[in-house]
Fold this sequence. Notes:
- The chain is mostly helical.
- It has one domain (2-327).
- The chain has helices spanning 2-16, 21-44, 51-64, 68-91, 102-111, 117-125, 133-143, 147-159, 161-184, 205-212, 220-224, 236-251, 253-272, 278-296, 300-327.
- α7 (133-143) crosses α13 and α12 packs across α14.
- The longest helix has 28 residues, at 300-327.
- It is globular.
- It starts with a helix and ends with a helix.
Amino acid sequence: MPGIEEQAQRTATTDEAPESRTLIRFTNWVLAAYFVGVLGTMLVLRVTPSVDVFFIFGLLGALLIGRGLAFIRDWGPFLFIFFAWEGMRGLANHFGQAVHSDGVIAVERALMFGTVPTVSIQQWLRVPGTISALDVAMTFVYVSHFFFPLALAFFLWLRDRPRYYRFVTTLMAVSFAAFITFLLFPVAPPRFAGSYGEQLAVTDVMGEVLARANWTGFSWVYGNLVGNPVAAFPSMHAAYPLLVLLFLWERWRLAALVWLPVTLVIWFAVVYLGHHYVVDVIGGAAYAVVGYVAFRYTDISGTVVRAYRRAFSRVRADASGMVRSIRR
């Protein structure tokens, strides 16, 4: 993708020219502390770290470093498309497709030597009727999983604009590929298996934790647009952290090694909580790898960005023309 990457890299380099390397590193650490503080505050206050909430805090972070308008320009389409995806995802289970459950359980047992890992892990680690520290920790991991891809996107936006464009377009492509799968092949998660076939001895651990904590901090988007109880395969909770890992490995390999155990913890959490089968995790990982390879070695993201920039330039020119006409 030489054209768009070189152009974007020149833009990023120009943006950072007045700053010394020491100041850039300091700014990165300040922003990292800022986002860690934001995430921690959200969890303490029981506010779900959703995309719309992140946009507000991301915009504040961009304003702090004098890039508010650039943030709106570069993040606006991505967030608008993602909101549209969230809305469609919630509708995917209303198209009359048969919900799959017993067949997926059979595949799970075939792969896992006759067991369903969610059932086995909960029997091993949980005491029925109690909420453990593990339950709470895994719930926090689950509800905050999408905060991390957005945080990486923000840092890429600051430091490596070409990779930012490729990362967000890959993220969107994988998400929409998953939506098509949700639409054509709805799969019930372990905690809802009994509604569609064989009843599994699975507890909705996260549901119990949120109910016990009286968790009501859902944004309007999260509370009204998100929600598809039969969208277990592929697991986006598996796909998103793996995409983060792959992009980190390209540029910050030490950070990738630090992120690897976090990815594994997220994968464990979705199985332990009863929200996904191991099959779903494998599917999500496969979608992430295919999407990453497709966008890494083609100019798809460059084509998308060039089209957006042309459209943005036309809109800006039209707006400027209207302003001049009004002034006259």
